[in-house]
Amino acid sequence: RQGQMCIRDRSMENLIIGIQNALTLGPLIALIAGVTIGIFMGAIPGLTAAMAIALLAPITFGMQPITAIAFLIGIYKGGTFGGSISAILLNIPGSPEASATSFDGFPLAKKGRAREALQMALFASVAGAIIADILLYVVAAPFSKFALKFGPTELTFVVLFAFTFVAGLTGKSMIRGLIACSFGILCAMVGLDPMSATPRLTFGFIELFDGLSLLSIAIGMLGLAEIIFVLEKKFREKYGLKKVEIAQFGEKRGPNLNLVVFFQYWKTILRSSFIGSCVGALPGIGASMAAFLGYGSAKKYSKQPELFGKGNLDGIAGPEAANSAVVGGSFVPLLTLGIPGNVTTALMVGTFLVHGIEPGPHVFNNQPILIYSIFSILLIANFFNLIIGLLGSGIYSHIIRLPEYIIYSIVGLTCLTGVLAASSTIFDLYIVIIFGVIGYFMKKFDYSFVAFLIGFVLAPEFELSFRSYLLLAQGDPVGLLFSRPIALFFFGLTTVSYTHLRAHETREDRVFRRWV
């Protein structure tokens, strides 16, 4: 008992010292600078938080370790919210995980409720991040042990469930959702085979050896596709082919978000925060999946699911709380296992090592004060994100007062320059244009971009896990499945999900299934 009390006293002492370290002048200034840069970089399509960290990490090498970490965490937190700004105002996600936010955020902006949408994104983002950071305090080590149990078999059926879940919830037709998801998987196959390193679907282009860029595809299918769609409407209207009513941007920035209204969505925020925390703690899955799962769960449990995609605050709260919660969740495998949960934390590992910090199982015992300092910085960064985001929300929403031709000219230029800045190759500009045209036709014929993107994002993980699963099975995949309870659980969820979707399939779905 005395030993246990001594450990608790020591942990409390380490926690207090960690909080004091986080509240010193250096880390606080670094947080303010990091959050400001993160929001700015995240709001510009193509310039993500990961890119900002990659560009600015060298300037942290001369800082104190805590100050350097605070600066990078500030960029990470600010960039996660910043992606929603352009997603809501221009229908172009500043970062891939903000794609789901644009589905309801952009319609709200066109209705003259841009400020309300931005503030919902900010409040939900901060709330989700705070919940995730508190969970990080409590369950870091236990959850990392659970994540360690996820082998190829488990990941195969987790991703398979995600495919079924998202394809069924997006769009009016399950078949079209599955087609879009399959097309996303096909596009993800471009590049080198992950096991044999042989080129496939590259058509002789060396630039495709690394695969298609997620950012180029997201900007093309959302940004350029929207421009083409608007141009078509204007063309039809001008030449009298078909009079189409075009939604105009509101003359005003719109009302502020009432806090009473915000707290009405607490169930969505809490649910999405847990989803984001869990997804973040599983290495390699990333914030994009969390955002779409948050959006899907918000739609599933909503009393008015038919309003999603037309301007529903629930459709903003879900993905924003989920993708922000990934930040706290991604530090679980990073700090306890030394495994980065996503690209951003992978970039942060280099800075950690430069400052003599080696993430892994022993860091909690060897450097407990540092760990608690990081936890405290993560929590404090949320409040700076809230303050800086609120101060800028009025400025951001001024954008919608610009004439439509100016907005879409800027959108087109931003799309192309953002991708060029991210990749430094002309080839990626061609990819943006090609997928802009594809996105236009997908939008015109009601094929879900959400399902496509989920298929594209998760396909590499699914392929590698599935092939490893077959190798481990040694000719008996069913036997291996029944010997892995976690995989069997997700297989059951997939079966139930598909059965539920079959019960609600449309006439088009039935005709297509019989034809196949």
Description:
- This protein is mainly α and 516 residues long.
- The chain contains 22 helices and two strands.
- The model is unreliable at 3-7 and 241-252 (pLDDT under 50).
Summarize the structure.
The chain is mainly α and 516 residues long. The chain has helices at residues 2-22, 25-43, 49-56, 65-90, 99-110, 114-148, 152-169, 174-188, 214-238, 259-263, 266-281, 287-300, 314-337, 343-354, 363-366, 368-396, 404-423, 427-444, 449-473, 477-482, 485-503, 507-515; strands at residues 191-192, 199-200.
How can the largest sheet be summarized? 2 strands, antiparallel
Helix content: over 70%
**Low-pLDDT regions:** 3-7, 241-252
Q: Going across the biggest sheet, name each strand in turn.
A: 1-2
Distance between the termini: 68 Å
Total of helices: 22
How large, in whole angstroms, is the Cα Rg?
Answer: 23 Å
Overall geometry comes to globular
Strand content: under 5%
Q: Overall pLDDT, averaged?
A: 76
Strands, total number: 2
The string of secondary-structure elements, in order, is HHHHHHHHEEHHHHHHHHHHHHHH
Q: Assembly type of the shown chains?
A: single chain
Summing up helix and strand content along with how strands pair, one would put the structural category as mainly alpha
